[in-house]
Amino acid sequence: MMKTRDVVRVGIADMNISAASTTIRTSGLGSCVGVVLYDELRKIAGMVHVMLPDSSLDRSQKLNVAKFADTGIYALMERLKEEGARPMALKAKIAGGAQMFQFGSSDTLRIGPRNIEAVKKELKRLSIPLIAEDTGGKSGRTIEFDPLTTMLSIRTVNKGTKEI
Amino acid sequence: MNSELSISDIHLDVLKEIGNIGAAHAATSLSQLLSRKIEMYVPSVELVSFDGMFELAGGVDEVVVGIYLRLEGDLSGSMFFMLSIESANRFVRKLTGDESFDFHTPPFSELGISAMQELGNILSGSYLAALSDFTGLKIQPTVPSLSVDMVGSIVSFGLIEVSHYSDEVIVIDTKVREDGVESVNGHFFLLPDPSSYATIFRSLGVL
Predict the structure, then answer these.
(1) Is the CB of B167 less than 8 angstroms away from the CB of A32?
(2) Do A103 and B145 touch (CB under 8 A)?
(3) Dihedrals φ, ψ of A55, to 5°?
(4) DSSP strand E in chain A: where?
(5) What are B72's strand-pairing partners?
(6) CA of residue B69 relative to chain centroid, distance
(7) Which residue from A12, A30, A52 is facing B51, i.e. has the nearest CB?
């Protein structure tokens, strides 16, 4: 893949955006969900690495909007608008939400599916069409989106790389 | 909640001390089990960002064999035992006598997985026994669960609880080194839930 091009990296509970000249990547998604929003024509894309389903769960003193599905997707949309993306043209691709372990408290075990549900609910609320997804399962994912081709490449440890 | 609890260097030093006591016990058990000298020590106890935590564990993309245990009782938290694939292979082959076992090529034999989980049981058991003796707290681990995957995917699961309260986590990192092998080949992480910070510090007399 485009090894000569720069890559914008997105950490956990973090978001960032990329213009056409760079791809955007987040690594090691487990139960977290990576959400890509993009404006195909303007070649602008953003990614948020969602860790928890809803900001009502927040018990911190300072809200990190990128951590939650509801606040994260909304904030990413606003950020993309500032960069010149057209809100009505935004589309989404998502990946992640795996169940990495078989044991744990039931709430934590279901965190992957709950994140996926919450992401889809928020996309629907914002009328952003979900174009493709690679969610669930038991494997971690590293994902990279190219705003030029609008392809999301997904790498898993034992199943190689695929594009959606 | 205890998110107002400010964590000082004294707190971290005390955790390092109990980490080293736990690590010494765990290293003895592991050395006996594998009939070879295994060293375990706590290089540091830090308050780090989630991304910083992945760096400590070898990098977010690094593929490792991870064992996860949930801690319950007087304190709650997560425990991870993470080994490079090469080290995990050596340990499992030694325990099972199955020289063909390889964490690079799934599906893995039941026996191999059991051996790896047993390793996690013994390590966490001896570590927690030492911790309990020292603090007077009763701590029970759940059954260990195993995953061969990227550091980020594995460790983030143990950060879910913490992430409700904070974007930083107290990590008691224990490095695992086999005798005669140059590089560090494993980590043992204890991540107390923020709701247990006060309990731990009170039991150690620093709150």
Answers:
(1) no
(2) yes
(3) -70, -10
(4) 7-10, 15-18, 23-29, 33-39, 44-50, 91-96, 130-135, 141-146, 151-156, 160-163
(5) B140
(6) 9
(7) A12
Record: contact B60-A27, CB cut-off 8 A: yes
Which residue out of A10, A15, A32, A116 is catalytically annotated?
A32
Give how far A117 is from chain B: nearest CA, Å: 17
| Residue in the block written with tokens 């372990």 | A101
Using the Cβ of A113 and the Cβ atoms of chain B, whether some distance falls under 8 Å is answered with no
Residues across chain B = 207
From the list A27, A31, A61, the residue facing B157 with the nearest CB is A31
Count of residues for chain A?
164
Q: Which two tokens stand for residue B179?
A: 């005798």
Compute the nearest-CA separation of B128 from chain A (Å): 18
What are the structural domains, with CATH classification, of chain B? 2-202 (3.40.1550.10)
Q: How far is CA B139 from CA A81, A161, B42, in A?
A: 50, 41, 20
**B145 at A interface, C-beta within 8 A:** yes
Q: In the numeric block, which tokens belong to residue B195?
A: 């709701």
> What ipTM score was computed for the predicted complex, to two decimals?
0.88
Distance CA B147, CA B157 (A): 11
The CA distance from B172 to B174, in Å, is: 7
Inter-chain CB proximity B63 and A100 less than 8 Å:
no
User: Per-residue confidence of chain B (207 residues) as pLDDT tens digits?
Assistant: 344 467 788 888 888 888 888 888 888 888 888 888 888 888 788 889 999 999 988 899 999 999 998 899 998 888 888 888 988 998 899 889 999 999 998 888 999 999 998 888 888 888 888 888 888 899 988 888 899 999 999 999 889 888 988 888 888 888 888 777 656 578 888 888 888 888 888 888 877
Query: CA-CA distance, B114 to A97, in Å (whole number)?
Result: 26
Q: Is B145 close to A104, i.e. CB distance below 8 A?
A: yes
Active site residue A32: yes
Pick one of 3.90.550.10, 3.30.1330.200, 3.30.390.10, 3.40.50.1260 as the CATH number of A7-163: 3.30.1330.200
Joined together, the tokens standing for residue B90 give 């050596």
